[in-house]
TrEMBL record:
Protein name: Alpha N-terminal protein methyltransferase 1
Organism ancestry: Eukaryota, Cryptophyceae, Pyrenomonadales, Geminigeraceae, Guillardia
InterPro entries: MeTrfase_NTM1, SAM-dependent_MTases_sf
Enzyme Commission (EC) number: 2.1.1.244
Gene source species: Guillardia theta (Cryptophyte)
Cellular compartments per GO CC: cytoplasm
Keyword Transferase included in the entry's annotation: yes
Length: 280
């Protein structure tokens, strides 16, 4: 998918409401049950998330995020490692990404402004930055929670990337916004009007690239993260989500603590974040 900012937050079949605990609940039409890698079946997303999240604090070693990090910490910092033994697909993957990127430019979905900046989310060892994003952007910020991957990425990209290496999970990452625009607005407006203009402050990124990682985020964190990404974009910037999808429902991977969602499920969460698909 490629997703663009969209002011229309509520789609027809997707909306937010509150449950008894006062936490936002995300409804998506067309997603029923699913399975997991142990052969268990779930009647609903709710049942699956209750099962996954009620057992331990998500950040603890036994929790949803803790288990995911633990899994990747034991994986070698290599292309084959981050691609789960499918290292041979990397060339085709990068070529396809290049073609998609060119389509976005050609069709006017993405308009670049100088100096170009991209984010590589769940960057691993910087495979995508090295093979694709750094060819197009002066600075690529790599966001990755696993230390030995990020260190490898920094070594691999040294000398041809002006971006930052940020060790954090996407559930906690807040894409930077433009401090310069804040300063300019401050000079030109009185304090009363500043509040309303703050909302239209633009982000720093032309492209926020999210590939083979979003399955690590819970539904709530997925939506909240996408909303933050939206605010992190420049005016004509885009979010690109490249992900494996199952044909229906979802499949939980108990080993690396991730969930493969159907295309309907992925799109439903993006719509819940106020994004619409502009190219596929
Ligand atoms: N996108 C890269 C790496 C894919 S492997 C590529 O295509 O080459 C999945 C990556 O997601 C790993 O580097 C893993 O450490 C990272 N990851 C796992 N949980 C994450 C989380 N909660 N937030 C951000 N990244 C995460």
């Amino acid at each position: 998918f490629c997703l663009l900012q969209n002011q229309q937050v509520l789609g027809e079949s997707i909306c937010f409401s509150s449950n008894n605990m006062g936490k936002g609940k995300i409804f998506i039409d067309g997603v029923e049950g699913g399975t997991d890698s142990m052969g268990n079946t779930y009647y609903s997303r709710d049942e699956m998330w209750k099962n996954e999240l009620d057992r331990a604090d998500p950040t603890s070693e036994k929790g949803w995020y803790g288990k995911g990090i633990k899994y990747w910490e034991d994986v070698p910092a290599s292309v084959d490692g981050v691609l789960g033994g499918f290292g041979h697909v990397t060339d085709v993957d990068l070529e396809e990404s290049e073609l998609f990127y060119q389509t976005l430019l050609r069709e006017g979905h993405l308009k670049l402004t100088e100096p170009g900046r991209a984010a590589d989310c769940g960057a691993g060892i910087g495979r995508i930055s090295k093979g694709f994003l750094c060819n197009h952007f002066k600075a690529v910020d790599l966001v990755e929670p696993v230390a030995h991957f990020l260190q490898t990425a920094e070594k691999e990209l040294s000398g041809f990337n002006d971006g930052n290496y940020i060790q954090i999970g996407l559930q906690d990452w807040v894409p930077q916004q433009g401090a310069q625009s804040c300063f300019v607005i401050f000079l030109h407006l009185d304090l009363n009007s500043l509040a309303s203009y703050r909302l239209s402050l633009l982000g720093l990124y032309d492209v926020i690239w999210i590939q083979w990682v979003i399955g690590h985020l819970t539904d709530e964190d997925f939506v909240a993260f996408m909303m933050r990404c939206k605010r992190g974009l420049k005016e004509d910037g885009v979010i690109v989500l490249k992900e494996n999808a199952c044909t229906e429902g979802f499949i939980v991977d108990k080993e690396d603590s991730s969930v493969t969602r159907s295309a309907v499920y992925l799109e439903g969460l993006c719509k819940a974040a106020g994004l619409s698909v502009v190219a596929q």
